[in-house]
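Quick review question:
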């Protein structure tokens, strides 16, 4: 069985010592969606949400979240990110706003948490900006879809948006 790296031998939570790990280029891509009423999606695509441009604000929220991940996720290493890209699209067939975040770093630890945090914050921002017209929105399917770099190598999920 694989040992959890964030637990010390005595069972206490700890931040992993990565000082001996090799610096490598690392990338992580995460995705998620927020499902809503068709009328809510139309307000977003038509730019008529009273709080402003939902897509632009959510994109900025995602980027900011990735940069602040270690402030909010215990035991997460602070990283000097090389890139954070948050793509947000609207899918009228699914009545969804779909979010894909890509994070890159040259470092000793991966950027999976940063990518997941970016997607989560972007989805929460969409919810916040549209909740006055649709409290039934559903944030769903947030997950890692690709990871590369480091000793564990590459991971690719079976399916993506």
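Suggested answer, residue by residue:
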């Amino acid at each position: 069985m694989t040992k959890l790296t964030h637990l010390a031998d005595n069972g206490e939570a700890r931040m992993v010592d990565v000082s001996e790990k090799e610096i490598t280029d690392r990338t992580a891509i995460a995705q998620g969606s927020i499902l809503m009423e068709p009328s809510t999606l139309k307000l977003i695509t038509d730019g008529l949400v009273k709080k402003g441009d939902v897509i632009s604000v959510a994109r900025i929220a995602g980027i900011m979240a990735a940069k602040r991940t270690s402030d909010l996720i215990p035991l997460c290493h602070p990283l000097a990110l090389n890139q954070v890209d948050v793509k947000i699209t609207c899918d009228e067939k699914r009545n969804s706003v779909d979010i894909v975040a890509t994070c890159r770093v040259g470092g000793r630890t991966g950027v999976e948490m940063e990518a997941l945090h970016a997607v989560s914050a972007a989805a929460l921002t969409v919810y916040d900006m549209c909740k006055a017209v649709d409290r039934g929105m559903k944030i769903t399917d947030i997950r890692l879809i690709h990871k590369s770099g480091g000793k564990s190598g590459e991971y690719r999920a079976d399916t993506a948006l």
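Why it works: The two ends are 32 Å apart (CA to CA). The longest helix spans residues 112-130.
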